[in-house]
Amino acid sequence: MLKGKTALVTGSTSGIGLGIARALAAQGANIVLNGFGDVEGPRAAIAALGVQVAYHGADMSRPAEIEAMMAYAAITFGRVDILVNNAGIQHVARIENFPTERWDAVIAINLSSAFHATRLALPAMREANWGRIINLASVHGLVASAEKSAYVAAKHGLVGLTKVTALENATTGVTCNAICPGWVLTPLVQKQVDARAASQGVSNDEAIRQLLGEKEPSMQFTTPDELGALAVFLCSSAGNNVRGVAWNMDGGWAAQ
Ligand code: NAD
Fold this sequence. Notes:
This protein has helices spanning 15-26, 40-47, 63-77, 100-128, 149-168, 187-200, 204-215, 224-235, and strands at 6-9, 30-34, 53-56, 82-85, 131-136, 174-181, 246-249. It is α/β, with parallel strands linked by helices. It is globular. The mean pLDDT is 98.
């Protein structure tokens, strides 16, 4: 379905971004990976699906590096057809204790990076009159939790950016939507499970049961594969007129 298209997925060396990159590659899209840590494992996993893979290590908190990554993707594959703004970090602390440097980093990586990648991707998408921009927001783009001020502000901002991007391109073949997961068991969340297990003196399984029990009625994690399938739908022709939506996959979290 996506043969001949190119998808750039930020923060795709791990977790949800890697799951979405895999799902788009399985539909035939060439992939530009980005992110830190192990690159060869993700690169091999995508290449095994029979598509071309490239990697750029841009730090998504740095606009100049985002510009270099977008230029690299255009030189390598001609154009970015699908942009998935996924890179994200978390920091958990009450507002009065929130380190200002962590605030700046969360806003830069979770929100401003999407603005920069989007502004750089749009001209070629508009020229081709086809494009898909998918922003990995969160259920925290719709509702809040204590001790996550920067993350909740960034994700609410990302949902707003999604709507504006959708509106500004509404008469074209370029769509923009947000995906809003509840808990997904990735390294980002395992850190929160570990912190809870340590502070409560409970096992990993008990910490997970508490974490899900507080917020997620289904008591199940959403998986990167499920999120990948939603991204594939948004990239399909059935998604042509899905515009400016914030679509939660959250086990009922935001329904409460
Ligand atoms: P993760 O920690 O597994 O992966 C994050 C990815 O972003 C990694 O590839 C990492 O290398 C990359 N990254 C981090 N900082 C970066 C930077 N400065 N520049 C470039 N890349 C950087 O996290 P995840 O859980 O897969 O999260 C992916 C996205 O999904 C994030 O935006 C997160 O907020 C969102 N999300 C996650 C959950 C969840 O429960 N895990 C829920 C809702 C939304």
